[in-house]
Each structure stands twice: as C-alpha cells, then as structure tokens.
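Case study: MALR1 protein.
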Amino acid sequence: GSSWNNCDFETNSCKVLPEFNLQPGWIRRNGQSGMGPPYSDHNGNESAYFLSLSSEMQSSSAALRTSVFLPTDEEHLCQIRFHYWVSQMSRTLMVGLRKLSEDTVANIWQISGELRNQWNVNTITINSTKKFEIIFSGMVETQRQGESIAIDDITFSEGC
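Here is what the predicted structure looks like once written out:
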C-alpha cells in the first residue's frame, strides 16, 4: 500500500537506498540502454528504469546497502518486496542482514541463475531486535555477454 516506501528507480533518489548511484557495480538504466537484458522493467516498460549489474564489473560481487532500520517488533514486522532478474547459472543474487552491533552479514535469501529470462518477485520478512541494514549483493562467476542481474521496485513496509 501507500505506507510502503518504494524505490522504483525512475528518479535518481530513493530514501531507503540513499547512495545507489554510487554503489560500484550497479547501474541505473532502462531496457533501451543497449546493455543487454532485461529489455524492460518488471512491468514490461522498455523506458522505465531499474538497477542492473554492470558488465564491466571489476570484482566478482557488488553490494547495494540500505539505510539503517530500527529494530522490529511483533506489531511492526519489516517486509521487503522486490522484483529481480537473474539470468544464467554463473549469476547469484543474495540478500543479507547486518545488525549494527555485529560485523557479520547473515545471508537471508539467495537465488542463482535460472535459465528463464524473466522478472520474478520475492518478499522477505525481517525480524531483528537490533538496528540493522539490508545488503543486496550480485555475484558473477564468469563474465559472459547477454547475462545479467537486475533489481526493480524495492518496497519496504512501514515496519521497516
């Protein structure tokens, strides 16, 4: 609903992902950019924007960090819903949870390449007694043309 904070990447700003344009490896683009698939956003719109991993990535993984969220409680669970595209087996998209009191990132969801080139949607429910941030990581084993990872329409419920 309208109470969810939404990052659809149509503009250069998003409250919850404050620096997504500075995150190395991730590019804000649309399907007409000439950079390979996906050729549209998850609604099938060729001119609408999403984030995708650059094919010129220097390292094997690229992280996308959210701002810091307050602890959740029973009444206000934090739900994160996002659309994702992962093509080919050498690609992995992971979602991690980092509590601010700890250095480690707990992996809470991941998907490896499916050969179906299509947008999928996922919702993750976060339960954390400490302040936390969420990290989306794209990983690439081998660079091949026409393969990609993309993320679109990340929405955060009011419990976040």
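For the exam, be able to explain this: The first strand starts at residue 5 and ends at 7.
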